[in-house]
Structure formats: structure tokens, C-alpha cells
Amino acid sequence: xxxxxxxxxxxxxxxxxxxxxxxxxxxxxxxxxxxxxxxxxxxxxxxxxxxxxxxxxxxxxxxxxxxxxxxxxxxxxxxxxxxxxxxxxxxxxxxxxxxxxxxxxxxxxxxxxxxxxxxxxxxxxxxxxxxxxxxxxxxxxxxxxxxxxxxxxxxxxxxxxxxxxxxx
Length: 168
Description:
3-stranded antiparallel sheet, alpha+beta, globular, single chain, 5-stranded antiparallel sheet
């Protein structure tokens, strides 16, 4: 066995594990709304999912941006969307990247393609972790954060997906 300068093999893990164990009940990091994203978070608080929509070319977009990526117009508005979509891709995370997720692993982090064509990233509830597949239908739900009062839009698998998808 090679000599390690800071001690014996595995010492780094022993140093980290107690820190993670003491942070099990740590809340998720709270969103920090900006002037550009404030409308999204205010709508989430009302349990409404909105995305930006260019008023010049009518293209939906998410994440919020100052200019339309299609026509470069600076004119846009918040527009309610269905909150339904499909799993475009996903990963199953087995190691917490932040102490707030230590008691949630494994969990699914999915890219959701909304019926309106824009994509969002969300983690799925624990009960959906083993069932998630690319192409499965999902719907939004809103989770209140007890510590900071924020409301997070999240997605879960649809038990009874609609027979058809309506595009505008």
C-alpha cells in the first residue's frame, strides 16, 4: 500500500461523511429571484407554471433571457403553460452533490420537454425514481419550501396521461 501524505487511505471520506451526516435536515438552496426571473418565481408561488414568450415572433423560451434567441427582440411576456410534458432525458443520482440531498439519494434529475416545446430541469419525487423512462409523461406540481417560503415547480410521472397532446 502506498503512503498517503495526509494519513491512511480513505481518510478523506471519513472526514467528509460526518459533515454530510450532520447536514441531513438541511433545506434545499433557495432560489434567488432576479429582475429577469422574478415573474417565474411569483407565478410558482401562485401554483402557476409560466415561461417567457417573445411578443414579436411568439416563440416560447426557458430559461429566462433578455433577448429572444430566434428574432433577437427584447419584447416578451410571461405566458402560462400546460405544465405537462415528457421526459426528454434523465440521470439517476446516487451521490448527493449538496448536503440537502443526502437523505434523497438515489433520485432522478430529468430534463422535461413541455408540450409547448421548451425544456426544464427538475428532480422527480422519490416514488418515481425506479419507474422513470425517457418519453414518459409528466406533470408539474408545486412544492412549498418550509424554511424560506419559496415555491418550487417540480415534475412527477402522470398516472393517466392524456390520449393526445395539443400544440398551439
